[in-house]
Specification:
By secondary structure, this protein is α/β, with parallel strands linked by helices. The protein contains eight helices and ten strands. 36% of the residues lie in helices and 23% in strands. Helix 2 links the parallel strand 2 and strand 3. One of its GO terms (molecular function) is precorrin-2 C20-methyltransferase activity.
Length: 227
Amino acid sequence: MAKLYGVGVGPGDPELMTLKAVNTIKKCSVIAFPHRKTAYEIALAACPEIKHKKLVSLELPMTKSKEEIYAAHKKAAFILEEYIKNNEDTAFLTLGDPCIYSTFMYIERIVSMHGYETRIISGVPSFCAASAAFKISLADGKKQIHISAGDDDIDEVLNYNGCRIFMKAGKSLKNINDRILKAKSKAYVAVNCTMDNERLYTDIADIIKTDGDIGYFSLVIVKDEKD
């Protein structure tokens, strides 16, 4: 029986794709990806031959409506299941790692519930690539790491000890900056990490003055100044 593979293509640089990811993509006859195509373009650079496979662009809207999101996930799962029924191994491409804030996991739950086999192929998360770019450690000794998305719980997360990571943080920069100034913490901001248009900042205030909302592919790493 064919399987559905969730394949992490890493943060942006095709050279950061794992050998396992490349080999999985090569063996699958169907390549699915969100309609924005960023993950597909990364995979295409590493595996040019995938343009000759069956390509499935899935409409996955960026909305806060739970009803719309669930409907899109169900529709995507149905589309992918049709290929699996036809005994065609199918790869769903996702940025970073499939297990970290990825649409794939929602689709995987539906497909698995319907009795189909799935596999997850890990990828390099953006915050690991960002820490490497800044040459900073995310955790030393027994230090903790906390990961959050969006701006709903900024105060709560910043109260935690250790390293705090805010993903998809473009619209939250001012709120984060206001709070870290009071807490005497240090922030590192990565925009489009490892992509051709990568930007790295060590002062959020500079970004707020020039860029404002820096977009979806942005993250902030916050560490105490003593760290």
